[in-house]
Recover the amino acids of this structure.
């Protein structure tokens, strides 16, 4: 019979907290207010996307109605939600 021992991996407390806390998403929603240019500008300026990445996201939002633009802890997501909301974008923390 083959040895079916499973090697256990140990995690530090920081690793566990990171895995547990990274379950929030910042979702950008389509609206009739913001231009493609403004959405792209905000994604590049605040989330460090390239112009090409930001343009793809803008098209996804335009065609599908929404797109997840960031994943992280609740605190990280909330900071960016407030910034983008101040810029006039329709964003939610999920």
């Amino acid at each position: 019979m083959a040895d079916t021992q499973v090697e256990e991996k140990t995690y530090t407390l920081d690793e566990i907290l990171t895995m547990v806390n990274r379950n929030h998403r910042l979702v950008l929603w389509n609206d009739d207010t913001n231009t493609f240019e403004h959405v792209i500008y905000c994604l590049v300026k605040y989330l460090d996307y390239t112009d090409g990445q930001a343009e793809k996201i803008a098209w996804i939002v335009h065609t599908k109605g929404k797109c997840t633009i960031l994943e992280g802890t609740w605190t990280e997501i909330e900071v960016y939600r407030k910034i983008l909301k101040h810029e006039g974008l329709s964003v939610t923390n999920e």
Q: What stands out?
A: The chain has a mean pLDDT of 89. The domain at 22-93 is CATH 3.30.1390.10 (Ribosomal Protein L30; Chain: A,). The beta strands are 24-29, 66-72, 90-93. DSSP finds four helices and three strands in the chain.
